[in-house]
């Protein structure tokens, strides 16, 4: 039996387990299973590997995308540049970290881009934000980063004015704000300056339409949630494990 899985904490809402279990059934991939491994601290990672020596691949979710790196033998270029890992391949006794969020995000975003989507506003500064920034760099889209607290090249939500909002027609929420069950939360940006020229992209997929996306749609913006990105990054993980 080939075992794959997901580490993170907590793991009450795991997209990956459902996705891969369904994939194995639908595509008649026998002898494969996908499990969730909630570990309360990353220091439990070596014990998990010792307990499951047959692991073929792991996905990594919050809060361990950055914390897991010291436990790995190698990193892909993207993972090294981003400083975050969401996919681990076990091969020839080595643990190599990859970042498939970049692939999922880029492939999901590109078909939606219009000629006027020339600048992006990235909301949040975590591991997911780093993957988004890396993808934007690959696509040659300049970006500004905003969060609740400014610093290190990051501006505060409160300092976003009409000129900034109108110039940055692509707005990406990389924070968990608005994710179920906290559906009444959203990044505190001036939504009144959003127009029909804007594209709002939310990495959150549950609920399908977050308050962030609802507020954008109310202003006539195009919107997209993170569901397709998740599917694409999961498929990218599968490709990496089976290379």
Question: Would you mind describing this structure in some detail?
Answer:
- The chain has 243 residues and is an alpha/beta fold.
- It has two domains: 2-99, Rossmann fold, CATH 3.40.50.10860; 103-229, 3-Layer(aba) Sandwich (Rossmann fold), CATH 3.40.50.720.
- 31% of the residues lie in helices and 23% in strands.
- It contains eight helices and twelve strands.
- It has helices at residues 15-26, 45-51, 77-82, 101-109, 127-138, 162-167, 211-218, 227-241, and strands at residues 2-8, 32-38, 55-60, 74-75, 87-91, 94-98, 120-123, 143-147, 154-156, 170-173, 199-202, 222-224.
- Strands 2-1-3-5-6-4 form a six-stranded mixed β-sheet. Strands 9-8-7-10-11-12 form a six-stranded parallel β-sheet, with helices on both faces.
- Helix 5 links the parallel strand 7 (120-123) and strand 8 (143-147).
- Helix 4 (101-109) crosses helix 5 and helix 4 crosses helix 8.
- It starts with a strand and ends with a helix.
- The model has no long low-confidence stretch (mean pLDDT 96).
């Amino acid at each position: 039996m080939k075992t794959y899985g997901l580490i993170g904490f907590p793991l009450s809402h795991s997209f990956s387990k459902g996705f891969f279990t369904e994939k194995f059934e639908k595509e008649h991939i026998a002898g494969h299973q996908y499990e969730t491994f909630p570990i309360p601290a990353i220091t439990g990672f070596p014990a998990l590997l010792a307990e499951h020596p047959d692991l073929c691949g792991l996905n990594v979710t919050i809060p361990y995308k950055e914390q897991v790196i010291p436990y790995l033998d190698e990193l892909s270029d993207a993972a090294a540049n981003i400083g975050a890992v969401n996919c681990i391949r076990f091969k020839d006794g080595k643990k190599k970290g990859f970042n498939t969020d970049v692939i999922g995000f880029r492939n999901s975003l590109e078909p939606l881009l219009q000629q006027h989507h020339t600048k992006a506003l990235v909301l949040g500064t975590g591991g997911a934000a780093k993957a988004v920034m890396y993808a934007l760099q690959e696509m040659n889209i300049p970006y500004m980063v905003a969060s609740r607290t400014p610093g290190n090249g990051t501006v505060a939500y409160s300092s976003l004015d009409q000129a900034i909002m109108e110039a940055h027609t692509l707005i990406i929420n990389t924070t968990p704000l608005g994710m179920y069950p906290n559906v009444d939360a959203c990044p505190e940006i001036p939504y009144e300056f959003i127009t029909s020229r804007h594209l709002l992209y939310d990495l959150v997929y549950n609920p399908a339409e977050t308050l962030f996306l609802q507020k954008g749609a109310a202003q006539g913006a195009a919107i997209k949630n993170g569901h397709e990105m998740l599917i694409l990054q999961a498929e990218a993980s599968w490709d990496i494990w089976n290379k």
